[in-house]
């Protein structure tokens, strides 16, 4: 499977038929969900402790699902955090730990859907609490990355993260104007579980029955390494195109000199090195998932398409 497919969710649903991406899913998938009777009720946000979202449009149906799954979601986060802090004990209670654990929560359904042996079918089978954990991870992750970039690797609490999210507008989705539907108290409690692995019971989580943590850990580490390399390559390519005023001919483009992390490269050689790495990462992800490693190799055109 191509790496772009391995690392992407589109129209997958959980056991209740809810889309994992909710209103970020493709329009056809949203139409199909409505046609199938999946609740998509909106409501006005009543939480006056976060003025940025008070009175805003929120996905009440998605919160109803999360509320039913709350205990399993918290236990799932305790399971993820507990295993993660065994690897990185110094990150407990910090912005970096929060970012890493919620990032793993985003990767979790990718592994379950894409594994080569007994994958979870893409429609109607994923446990709803896994979908809710994924959605909570997405919401917290964006704020945690912003917080990590602004304050660095430092201790924090659920209340501090929630206050930062309110201050920086993370409770409102810019693309749609919709606001986060979870009560602030639940958000803070969830973040504290992620930060510490405490406040919930990891032994009662069903995640260990769905996959070994080691599989998720290895997949996530390769994914993170690839994402960093991909971001670096994209940054260099965009800078080169901006400097050239558009899209130069291939000979000019690949013959140009670029700088990455203070080192000069010919862009053609820089591209070859990145493609070698990307194709190795693609093969490794397929291997970790127990899939055939025969996916077509990535080319420059494929990378541009993804960017």
Q: Any descriptors?
A:
307 residues, mainly alpha, two-stranded antiparallel ribbon, 12 helices
Structural account:
The protein is mostly helical and 307 residues long. It has 12 helices and 4 strands. Strands 1-2 form a two-stranded antiparallel ribbon. Strands 3-4 form a two-stranded antiparallel sheet. The longest helix is centred in the C-terminal third of the chain and has 32 residues.
Strand content: under 5%
* Number of separate helices: 12
Largest sheet, strands/sense/barrel: 2 strands, antiparallel
* Distance from first to last alpha carbon: 19 Å
Percent of residues in helical segments?
55-70%
User: What structural category do the secondary elements indicate?
Assistant: mainly alpha
Form type: globular
What is the N-to-C succession of helices and strands? HHEEHHHHHHHHEEHH
* Radius of gyration, taken over Cα atoms and rounded to an integer in Å: 21 Å
- Spans of 5+ residues with little confidence (pLDDT < 50)? none
User: Looking across the biggest beta sheet, what order are the strands in?
Assistant: 1-2
Quaternary structure annotation:
single chain
Give the integer mean of the pLDDT values.
96
Strand segment count: 4
């Amino acid at each position: 499977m191509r790496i772009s497919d391995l690392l992407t969710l589109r129209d997958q649903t959980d056991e209740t038929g809810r889309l994992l991406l909710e209103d970020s899913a493709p329009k056809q998938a949203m139409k199909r969900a409505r046609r199938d009777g999946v609740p998509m009720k909106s409501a006005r946000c009543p939480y006056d402790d976060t003025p940025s979202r008070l009175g805003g449009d929120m996905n009440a149906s998605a919160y109803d699902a999360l509320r039913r799954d709350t205990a399993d979601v918290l236990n799932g986060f305790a399971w993820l955090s507990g295993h993660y802090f065994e690897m990185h004990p110094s990150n407990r209670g910090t912005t970096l730990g929060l970012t890493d654990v919620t990032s793993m929560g985003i990767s979790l359904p990718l592994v379950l859907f894409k594994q080569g042996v007994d994958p979870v079918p893409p429609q109607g089978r994923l446990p709803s609490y896994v979908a809710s954990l994924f959605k909570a991870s997405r919401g917290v992750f964006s704020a945690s990355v912003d917080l990590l970039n602004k304050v660095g690797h430092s201790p924090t609490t659920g209340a501090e993260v929630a206050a930062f999210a309110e201050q920086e507008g993370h409770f409102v989705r810019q693309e749609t104007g919709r606001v986060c539907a979870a009560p602030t108290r639940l958000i803070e409690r969830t973040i504290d579980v992620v930060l510490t692995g405490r406040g919930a019971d990891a032994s009662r989580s069903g995640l260990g029955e769905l996959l070994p943590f080691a599989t998720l850990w290895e997949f996530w580490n390769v994914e993170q390494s690839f994402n960093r390399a991909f971001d670096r390559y994209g940054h260099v390519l965009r800078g080169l195109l901006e400097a050239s005023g558009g899209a130069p001919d291939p000979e000019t483009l690949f013959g140009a000199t670029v700088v990455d992390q203070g080192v000069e490269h010919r862009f053609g050689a820089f591209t070859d090195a990145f493609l070698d790495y990307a194709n190795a990462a693609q093969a490794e992800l397929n291997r970790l998932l127990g899939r055939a490693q025969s996916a077509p190799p990535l080319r420059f055109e494929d990378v541009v398409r993804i960017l």
